[in-house]
Every structure is written in structure tokens, then in C-alpha cells.
TrEMBL record:
This is Transposase. Pfam families: Y1_Tnp. One of its GO terms (biological process) is DNA transposition. Gene3D superfamilies: Transposase IS200-like (3.30.70.1290).
């Protein structure tokens, strides 16, 4: 199909021209499909995983095993999203994955296993995209780490929290 500039096209939210495989720290947010709270429940500031959330958590920890030049910094799992800092190092490896490839691998693997366990082939677990912020210095890294650590405290006011304001969602 020939490109037509008059048709709406999805615009990339990535920084144009930036090499997302270069060493550095990246703050990412990955949201569940439709912001559904199916990773678990936040109880007194602690995440209580259900099966899906436990699988997602274990695969998150596994990312550096699959990508030897990747390290994980602070991260937090919430009922409907993940915030984490992914660090691509300059370790010599044959694979130089981009941030997008790392996130895509994570989403693919978790979706595959969750759908096998739940017997829900084709069910979308994650939103199509993800959000990222390039961390360019120690100050920005510290701010991102503090944001992640404080995220459970903000959950009661999160617009995607079905119990926002202490009211239970309709059954």
C-alpha cells in the first residue's frame, strides 16, 4: 500500500533519531490492557500477586538472564502497570538489543505463559505500547527511583484504581 500523508498515522512516542540500544538507563512504564487490575492487589502498600502477576514478576527478574548486557534497577509492580528502570550496559555481547526489543520480549513471554496457564489463547495482557524516559544523569535517576518507590502510596488516588477514594467497584 502506498503511503498517504492525508490518512492518520500512529505517531511514535520514541525520541526521533535516538539509538535505544546504546548504554544508559531508561525509565519504563508498561500497562495492562485496558488498565485491568489483573496483576494483583495492593494491600497496605504491599503488592499481593495473583498468578498472572507472579508470572509477570518472575519474567521481569529473568530479563538480565536473556539479555546479558541488561541490568534492572528500581522497579515496582502495581495492580495494572509496572514501573521500572532498565539499564543497558556496555558489556560486550553479540546481541545489542534495543529497549523496544527488551520490552517486546518481556511482553511476549509473559503473555504466552499467562495465556497457556489461563487457557485464553490470544488474550491481550498488555497495552500495545509502553512509555519510556531516557535517564541522562544521576539526578534524573534519583528522581525516577523515588517516583517508583513512592508509587504504591499514590495508588489510592490513581484514576485507574477501581477502589479509588475507598469505594469498592460495582460487582
Amino acid at each position: 500500500m502506498k503511503y498517504n500523508p492525508d490518512i492518520r498515522h500512529r505517531r511514535s512516542i520514541r525520541l526521533r533519531g535516538y539509538d535505544y540500544s546504546q548504554p544508559g538507563a531508561y525509565f519504563v512504564t508498561i500497562c495492562t490492557q485496558h488498565h485491568e487490575c489483573f496483576l494483583g492487589e495492593l494491600v497496605n502498600g504491599d503488592m499481593k500477586f495473583i498468578v498472572r502477576g507472579g508470572i509477570a514478576y518472575q519474567f521481569w527478574l529473568h530479563i538480565p538472564n536473556h539479555f546479558p548486557n541488561v541490568e534492572l534497577d528500581e522497579f515496582v509492580f502495581m495492580p495494572n502497570h509496572i514501573h521500572g528502570i532498565i539499564v543497558i550496559t556496555d558489556k560486550f555481547t553479540l546481541k545489542k538489543p534495543t529497549l523496544g526489543q527488551i520490552v517486546a520480549y518481556y511482553k511476549y513471554q509473559t503473555t504466552k505463559i499467562i495465556n497457556q496457564i489461563d487457557d485464553t489463547p490470544g488474550l491481550r495482557i498488555w497495552q500495545r505500547n509502553y512509555y519510556d524516559r531516557i535517564i541522562r544523569n544521576q539526578n534524573t535517576l534519583h528522581i525516577a527511583q523515588q517516583y517508583i518507590l513512592a508509587n504504591p502510596l499514590r495508588w489510592p488516588k490513581d484514576p485507574h484504581n477501581p477502589r479509588r477514594g475507598g469505594v469498592s467497584p460495582p460487582s
